[in-house]
Amino acid sequence: MSSHPHSSPRLPNAGAGQPSARRMLSRLVRRTAQWRAQQLISSALKLADEPSLVLDLPCGADGFWPLLHTSNSRVVIAAEANTERLAAAMAGLAPGLASRVHPLQTSAFAIDLGPNAVDCIFCMHYLHQVDEPQRRLALLREFNRVTRDCVIVSVWVDGNLEAARQPPLNRRNGQVHARAQIEREFINAGFGISGHRDFIPGLAMLRLYVLHKLS
Fold first, then answer.
1. CATH code where residue 33 lies
2. pLDDT tens for residues 35-63?
3. How many C-beta atoms surround the C-beta of residue 46 within 10 A?
4. Does residue 58 lie in a domain region?
5. Does 1 fall in a domain?
6. Is 52 domain-assigned?
7. How many domains does the chain have?
8. pTM (two decimals)
9. What is the domain extent for residue 201?
């Protein structure tokens, strides 16, 4: 799955004789997606009361750390099960972030941290890959154990144009979630829903939920 905040829209065919125009359009799409991601993540962090210690899980090979570090006092634990991916992410870390990003090799289903260890868990582009409800519940309950306060999690939800255009297989295997169902799962895992942020309301299926721990 893409590690970017949203899969880039399909580019129009610029024609074989116009490679430079196609590259320019591709760069524009990426920059627009990055700008929108910055908006969404900043808004979600504000709704989460600007947490100081964030667990980015799974962080992927190109983490969201520059976006997470909108606060100079925020510290990020970059967690990944894949050691090579984690090493690649840390090797590409900008010098200014090195002192505030700490690597952790761990599974999302058995996080190698104690209860209430972090202020917030930040989880992008992972939950929609967990297609069995019981496994999602186990994951969310592990998040509930480790976070002291909140979780920011991305989900692909229905009720928008992009979800309606997904192949039937993606809708059947749980990658695109019914909003009512996934919100019930959040509540069953011990979270209250503080709010959500849509990538493009009514059009894109990517939604960021901000969840607060109930107990």
1. 3.40.50.150
2. 888 889 899 999 999 999 999 999 876 56
3. 11
4. yes
5. no
6. yes
7. 1
8. 0.83
9. 19-213
